Amino acid sequence: MRYYSTRNKDIYVSASQAILKGISDDGGLFVPEAFPQLPPLEELMGKNYRELAFGILKLYLDDYSEEEILQAVEGAYDHKFEDKDIVPIRKAGGAFFLELFKGPTLAFKDMALTVLPYLLKTAAIKQGESKEVVILTATSGDTGKAALEGFKDVPGTRVVVFYPENGVSKIQRLQMVTQRGANIYVAAVKGNFDDAQNGVKEIFNDKVFNEELKEKGFVLSSANSINIGRLLPQIVYYVYGYLSLAEQGEIKLGEKINIAVPTGNFGNILAAYYAMRMGLPVNKLLCASNDNRVLTDFFESNIYDRRRKLILTSSPSMDILISSNLERYLFHMSGGNAVEIKDKMRLLQDRGHYQWTKDSLGPVVPGMAGEQHISSAIEKLWSGDGYLMDPHTAIAYSVWERYLKDSGDNVPALIASTASPFKFSGKVLASIGEDEYKDEFEGMKRLGDLMGIPVPERMSELEKLPIRHSKVCEKSRMRDAVKSFLEGSKTNG
Q1: How many CB atoms lie within 10 A of CB 420?
Q2: Spatial separation of the C-alpha atoms in residues 120 and 137, rounded to whole Å
Q3: Three-state secondary-structure class, residue 80
Q4: What is the CA radius of gyration of the chain?
């Protein structure tokens, strides 16, 4: 299995090379040369999450041994996840919720970022890389904490996370700035997520800076979904969710489902598309956006336009105007036309917009949900079924509900539930008519009382943990921040 750059098909690497590099030298993203097909679904029935993950990753990581993949899977999906099934499914509001937030940081990013450190470390060994691997990542809220947690104190690695200074929730910020670990560095960027993400991409593409790092014993990689090693493990939970529905008798094996995904960077829904291309019976992929609606506008008009003011919402992980993984999707939609993709990405960078001229945009159906839609969805499921969901998940549910009403397409729906409601207690409580809590920790306690469960310790402890990372930098100084950290002159406490 080779992995091509989306911008130049003459650039191709092995799976371990793609995972170690993170991003292609030409700025493109790595994509598999073909989609391996799933075994007959009957053969997959009854497999637990680890067994399924092993089987799927083996199809893509063919330069890893079975033992190496098994070690990664078993090391990732263990007691760190609070549910024995890793990903439980809950039925509410006429849909099925794929609860992806049972890991250590209470967000779906754990599903891939618990396994990526194993894959990356093995890749470094395979490629004979003796330098320290520096995981350089921008986050809109949840990736940062999951990367920090996954890579903390992993020998041979360091982790650098940049987040928008005012673009994450208080709880998300606390999760990052209190992070323990001798090999980590966290800094806020004066700007929004797109500024942080663009800064990270510029660092990856700065050949002079990268050579300077190599001379000092460092090599860059990424934990963002631009890294194919982040994307591939996400395929697993969509296959697992489908099989779970079949095992529970909610669908017949072979029956198609719709999948609704709240997304800003297009990575999570892209994993569902990959599962579909592998043979998972999927009818439509509902691409659910928040008030920033850049993806909704694109799929409705064929024009991608980032020239708009970023709106800060109650779903901060989706407050994004440049959806990096859309590049991969368009590569597939174009039949692998890397020349066209390179041209569109150049237009996006230089002019801030481009027009897509292909007739079809595949199985994706766009939709968006504003703040009132979010509140209404949360309140409806709480009052009707006693089920609480976070704002991101509520966006997906709201988009699916309106799609159902408008289309009459009553195919069973799987909703990607991407974060615990405890992470966004203020919005959740306000949506169900509870008094506003100025203190997030009081809000979490109230939420726990309503749900009849204790506040997860990883949330409650944030109130007392010391702040370890207080660095703030201009977006133009991100290189300097990376260099300063790697040279051992940390000034962020």
Answers
A1: 27
A2: 14
A3: coil
A4: 21
Residue 151 has pLDDT above 90, yes or no: yes
Of the candidates 230, 286, 240, the one whose C-alpha atom is nearest the C-alpha of residue 263 is 286
H helices then E strands: how many in the chain?
A: 21, 16
Which two three-digit tokens encode residue 435? 């008094």
This prediction's pTM: 0.95
Element (H, E) at 415: strand 413-417
Alpha carbon 258 to chain centroid, angstroms: 20
User: Strand ranges (DSSP E) for 428-492?
Assistant: 471-474
- Residue-wise pLDDT tens digits, 413-462: 999 999 999 999 999 999 999 977 778 999 999 999 999 999 999 999 99
Percent with pLDDT over 70 in the chain: 99
Which residues, in sequence order, are CB contacts of 461 under 8 Å at separation 6+? none
DSSP string for 10-65: EEEE-HHHHHHH-S-TTS--EEESS-PPPPPHHHHTT--HHHHHHHHHHHH-TTS-
Which residues contact residue 148 at a Cβ distance below 8 angstroms, ignoring those fewer than 6 apart? 159, 161, 176, 179, 181, 184, 186
Is residue 181 within 8 A of residue 159, CB to CB? The reply is yes
